[in-house]
Amino acid sequence: MRVACQKTARVLQRVAEAVEPGITTGDIDALMRQYTKEEGGKPTFLGYGGFPGAICISINDEVIHGIPGGRVVLPGDVVSLDAGVWYDGFTGDSARTVMVGVIDPDVIRLVETTREALEVGISKVKPGVHLSDVSNAIQGVAEGAGFSVVREFVGHGVGRHLHEEPQVPNYGAPGRGPILKPGMTLAIEPMINLGRRGVRVLDDNWTVVTCDGKPSAHFEHTVAVTEEGAEILTLAN
Ligand code: MG
Ligand code: MG
User: How far is the CA of 51 from the centre of ligand 2 (A)?
Assistant: First the structure.
């Protein structure tokens, strides 16, 4: 599991560094496949539920599950990359939003707040706490900054399968849900909208966009519950 997550971290880092104006989402997908192959792994998302790409690429008002293709990345775009690498029977799952060129200050704040919400959520992870304490912390950071939390899609357990129990919402009252135990591995992934929280799925049956057309940001790490607290498995060493 650690190895698969380290591979996920390295591949996502390399892919993120390649995102610049003029690159197409199809080019990014090709890099995902190449870098994953170099790690001796397989792109977890390729074919998952019929997903046609190796990586989800969601730009601006696209929240998650964007399909790679001919779209060209432009200055001012915020590009969310979500990927996992399969290796030796395990997968990691990690995401980040990359800012390309000069970005609107409100959107910079959205991206930084989403990253912070993930960090604060992870900081709550330790044995004995309720899962919803993590959820509540994420919601507090996001809504405290004036943004809204996507509710239709949530984090999840991860390991031998991409999506395992339990679900990890990014909202909710504290003190509820399962109690965290050492050895659990969770994908924690706030999806935060600049405007209202509503989302809808496009006719491609994958791409999730904000209903109000305003930007969204997404950060995700795979985290292990340890005896002391949390270990972020998808942090590149
Ligand atoms: Mg993911
Ligand atoms: Mg995930």
Answer: 14
